[in-house]
Specification:
By secondary structure, this protein is α+β, with helices and mostly antiparallel strands. It is built from 8 helices and 5 strands, in the order βββββαααααααα.
Length: 202
Amino acid sequence: MKVIDYIRGPLVEIELSYIVIDHQGLGYQIYCPNPFQFQANEGETIQIYTYQYVREDVLRLYGFATKEERVLFEKLLNVSGIGPKGALAILASGEPENVIAAIEQEDEAFLVRFPGVGKKTARQMILDLKGKLEELTPNLTSNREVIERVSTSYSELEEALEALRALGYVEKELKKVRPHLENEELTTDGYIKRALQYMLKS
């Protein structure tokens, strides 16, 4: 359901799973894949694309930085076994382009790395969505080299984050630093060093 297309207003609060935007005196609680990606905009006016989720006992707004993220979220909700929490986790753990490339290349090994995605769900994602996402990233889905590079980089990043968890860093800290790392291609050690640099600065 898409009743509210977007909300624009000052970003007044960032929490672990949601942000709050003040729109004409009302504070909208909006759940996001990674709320801390908006940290640099705290106090500023931002625009976020929304999806309104309604069930008998649930009414929530989900928000995304781009329309493409929102479209992928909606597509994921149509896959059996994936709800809003699971779809958010997938978007939080990987760029939309990476997820789409894995689906188009039928890379189950890549998809099962996402939280809550087992082999059955990964196969269902491929069955339901392959060939239906090209309009989001038309130049990416046919490039095998891209998915191989993305898969390797993603694995190294996940190993680095696991190592940081073992060192005692909590999810809130890792969520803050992850957006700084996702666009880089480093070794596991490289990701760890870069993450520590960002956390020391903050």
